[in-house]
Amino acid sequence: MNPVPIPISNKAASDPVAVGGRQRLLLLIPTTTYRAEAFVEAARRLDVDLTVASEHDSTFSPAEPDRLLTLDFAGPMRAAEQVRAFAVEYPVTAVFGVDDGTAVVAAHASRALGIGRNQVEAVEAAANKHRQRVLLRDRGVPVPEFRVCSVQDRAASLADEVSYPCVLKPVALAASRGVIRVDDPVQFAQAFPRVVAIVTEAARHVTGHPDSEILIEDYVPGPEFALEGWLDEGRLTVLALFDKPDPLEGPYFAETIYVTPSCYSSDIQAALTACAESAARAIGLGFGPVHVELRYNENGPWLIELAARPIGGKCGQGLRFGSDGSVSLEELLLGKTLGLSGDSLEREASAVAVMMIPVLKAGIMKQVRGVTEALSVPHVTDMIITVHPGQELVPLPEESRYAGFIFARHDSPEGAESAVREAYACLDFVIE
Amino acid sequence: MEEICRSQINPGVAQHGGRIDLIDVEDATLVVRLMGGCQGCGMANVTLRQGVESAVKRMIPAVKGIRDITDHESGTNPYFKQGSK
């Protein structure tokens, strides 16, 4: 079925303009992100006035009121009012949120300032797995069959009603946390209370919504892909299409290796791109970054999830743009958001692989052996260990933290993938 | 510069259990190491760039910038813990 087009109005009330000769970027960064440094350094390279807003006060906020701002990220409408008050004294050219939650806040704030490029409702839909799927299904984008249930529902009843294999997904969580594949009613009855416990636990610390919903969707077989893209007036430019060479078949869905460029045929890549673009249009997004998860099988592409934000974790660190590869993904996205011209959306020629190091075992981290050996593997360009001795580690699906990231560059995707695998094989995480 | 760190900067970061040590000055760039709650903190770079650097440049205009040599991955008790995204 062809997607049903819906109109997209993504022209800003006023396009980005410099105020008093300088542009001011308001960057929304939650305190829990891995990504503050990458975005702040990118903004500095753009030579614009930068204000960073977070949900908690900085001790320097009183001394630097134009550079540090505290916003109610949990209340986007209130945050928008806070931004409007801030902009009276410090006019803002553009607002950018680095993750799902702050993207919604950025949309509200941009609307309040009259500089919005997306409908708030579209960004909110992208941040809600259920609402997004309803829109995609209703507008003809291929998505798995799904239903949504409450954490209050009875597992035994649901187990008899769903088809198998299926995947349980907390609506409000990300990074595969709480995502479990089940193949029959017995597995369902075991998995459902586990997902409920994860949702309940997360509500205490992350989402704040104790009655969060759980999505139950058909399992879609086939290789998975991640598409990093930029939307402008509804047209999608692919910044990178990543293959995920390790099969993601469950029961848990730990991301491991991303490799770009894709090894799949140009026809398959074009089909994936078209699916992602039609999904953005179906949701109503017309401007800004998108991160899209897709699968492909004999029935063609399937849209698994779309987010109105860039790739998470430190994966974006591997992507470079511009004629000399000197432009980071973050710099490119902020520059495009500000309407700065110049940088090409074309990625550098090298193949890149990123490995997200999974936490395989629960326990206390004692040490990591083999770091020097891993870093000395040819074509490995960087490695970051993001856990420290003494830290309690919990694997998926209860938690979604990675133990680190390995990056490699090579002439070929296969070579880059081999390099990160070889480096990972050098590592020994001692967990007791 | 050490006096500014002691009297103007560190009282602020101490509110989050942190400390900034001035290690060296290279070509008018301050080389610093972040300790305590600042080491590994998700917002350390924001504090450094948007708070500390701005304040220092205002007090000493000759300062060009700040270079952070902290091993943030080894931080055991960051004030803001980084999550999964």
Describe this entry's structure for a reader.
The complex is a heterodimer of chains A (432) and B (85). Chain A is an alpha+beta fold. In chain A, 30% of the residues lie in helices and 26% in strands. Chain A is built from eleven helices and 21 strands. Chain A has helices at 36-45, 76-89, 100-113, 120-126, 129-138, 155-161, 185-207, 266-283, 329-337, 371-375, 413-426; strands at 24-28, 49-54, 68-70, 94-97, 146-150, 166-170, 180-182, 213-218, 224-232, 235-243, 257-260, 288-297, 300-307, 320-321, 327-328, 351-357, 363-369, 380-385, 392-393, 404-410, 428-431. Chain A has a four-stranded parallel sheet with strand order 3-2-1-4. In chain A, helix 6 (155-161) packs across helix 7. Chain A starts with 23 loop residues before the first strand and ends with a strand. Chain B is α+β, with helices and mostly antiparallel strands. Chain B has two helices and three strands. Chain B has a three-stranded mixed sheet, with helices on one face. Chain B is globular, with a radius of gyration of 12 Å. Chain A binds chain B through residues 29, 31-37, 40-41, 44, 50-52, 54, 56, 58-60, 63-64, 67-68, 99, 174-175, 177, 206, 312-313, 384-386, 388-391, 399-402, and chain B through 12-13, 15-16, 40, 42-47, 49-52, 54-55, 73-76, 80-85.
Low-confidence stretches of chain A: 1-11
Fraction of residues in β-strands of chain A: 25-35%
Principal-axis shape of chain B equals: globular
Averaged pLDDT of chain A: 91
Q: Strand sequence of the main sheet of chain A, in spatial order?
A: 3-2-1-4
Largest sheet of chain A: 4 strands, parallel
Rounded to an integer in angstroms, the radius of gyration calculated over CA atoms of chain B is: 12 Å
Distance between the termini of chain B: 36 Å
- Rg of chain A (CA only): 21 Å
- The helix/strand class of chain B is alpha+beta
Helix content of chain A: 25-40%
Mean pLDDT of chain B: 84
Task: State the low-pLDDT regions of chain B, or none.
Answer: none
H-E order of chain B: HEEHE
Structural class of chain A: alpha+beta
**N-end to C-end Cα span of chain A:** 52 Å
The helix fraction of chain B, in percent, is: 25-40%
**Counted beta strands of chain A:** 21
Tell me the number of helical segments of chain A per DSSP (H or I, 4 or more residues long): 11
Could you tell me which chain pair has the largest interface and how many residues each side has? A-B, 41 and 27 residues
